[in-house]
Amino acid sequence: MTAFDPNRLDQLARRERGRLIANLVHRLGPHRLELAEDMVQEAVLAAISSWPYRGMPDKPAAWLARVAQNKAIDRLRREGREDLFEEDNDPRKQTGVADNISDPRLSDPELKLMFLCCHPVLSEQDRLMLTLKIVSGFTASEVASIFLISESTAAQRLARAKRKLRLDEQQLLSGISRFEVKARLDTVLKVIYLMFSAGYAPRFGDRLILKDVAFEALRLAEVIAADEEATTPEAHALVALLAFQSSRFNARMDEDGKLLLLKEQNRKLWDHKLTEKALCHMPLSQNGHALSRYHIEASIAAVHALAPTWEQTDWAAICVLYNALEQVADSPVVQISYSVAEAFEKGPVSALERLDAISDVAAVEYYAPYYLARAEIYKQVKDMKKAEEMLAKAQNCATSSVTNEFIETAFFT
């Protein structure tokens, strides 16, 4: 036993949640997804009740797994299903599904859980939201911040998505065929992309980076890319993008834990092994005919990664790439990033025009990077009054405490 650390429990619960639920779903059957989620949550609550007094067990993840399984058994016994964990209760055997219809190479339990949550009975956004909540452990509030919607809207959509899955129980029992793996792959890649984004720059909590979340997203992308039957050029492009972005983690904060902008980072601290991994996946991403957002964003990240210094960044190339990204996957977030690049390449007037064009989009009203981009540009033109106005608006947005501190101090110190 070791002394109880609430921060360690929080990180453990987030890191292990998907794996714990996935393992329970494997034993309970996919139609009991919601039960598995509830039992894992009850195991975490049991830890909160027990560990402060008894200490943390030597193998806390195994403790959570055992408690979650015991609680599931108890629940099912109360329902008269004492035989649930016997071998003959394999859902595929019960429904007569042939062993070879499911893709045997997708052996990672969390990945299988992601494909399960990305069921076509749900709308794409509901699939994304549900998977992020169940597999990545984000709360309804955190999911809402990722999608720039209200918490009540996120909670309603998540509840509706779970109801739809329950109504389609027979589909869940039948397993996932190879065809369905291919059909759901695009959505799963989007989930991994969003999962990484939330880890890279969380809009909640007191951590600048959720490294465990971000690296888990990279791992899942690598599992797909390594699968001979499931992989696609887009999967390799996603691995390249996430590896490039992960390579900068060690340089994104100073010794006091304060956020450092890209131009302030010590590039010697970048992880060159991750950069090399990204560069290895770039050629593999070029084996298809489609150009995805992952291809373009990986190319933008490559330009930054290969620039020896901030001053030598090829902003012209980055603007060309953002123009291509605008055609493939336009969004307010893309426009904000495009405007920052444009400010360095073409000047502040062009950048402000781009930001003005999205000022009426509801999604940016509570999105701090929008106001931070405007503040930075106003600072470039020495309009400090407007810069301060934009910073005040940024402070009213949902952001992590580290970002709040950056907003309060970085621009005018």
Overview of the structural elements:
The protein has 413 residues and is an all-alpha fold. The chain folds into 3 domains: 1-95, no CATH class; 106-231, no CATH class; 314-413, Alpha Horseshoe (Serine Threonine Protein Phosphatase 5, Tetratricopeptide repeat). The chain has 20 helices and no strands. It has helices at residues 6-28, 33-54, 60-78, 91-95, 109-117, 124-136, 140-147, 151-167, 169-173, 178-200, 211-226, 233-246, 272-284, 293-306, 315-329, 332-345, 348-356, 368-380, 384-395, 401-409. Helix 16 (332-345) runs parallel beside helix 18 (368-380). The longest helix has 23 residues, at 6-28. It is globular, with a radius of gyration of 23 Å. It starts with 5 loop residues before the first helix and ends with a helix.
What keywords describe this structure?
413 residues, 3 domains, Serine Threonine Protein Phosphatase 5, Tetratricopeptide repeat, mainly alpha
Sheet bearing the most strands, described?
A: none
The low-confidence parts are 86-104
Q: Give the CA-based shape.
A: globular
Number of DSSP strands?
Answer: 0
Helix content: 55-70%
Question: How many domain regions?
Answer: 3
Oligomer: single chain
Give the averaged pLDDT, no decimals: 85
Helix-strand sequence: HHHHHHHHHHHHHHHHHHHH
Bin the strand percentage: under 5%
Topology:
Blueprint: H1 6-28, H2 33-54, H3 60-78, H4 91-95, H5 109-117, H6 124-136, H7 140-147, H8 151-167, H9 169-173, H10 178-200, H11 211-226, H12 233-246, H13 272-284, H14 293-306, H15 315-329, H16 332-345, H17 348-356, H18 368-380, H19 384-395, H20 401-409
Helix pairs in contact: 1-2, 1-3, 1-5, 2-3, 5-6, 6-8, 6-10, 7-8, 10-11, 10-12, 11-12, 12-13, 12-14, 13-14, 14-15, 15-16, 16-17, 16-18, 17-18, 18-19
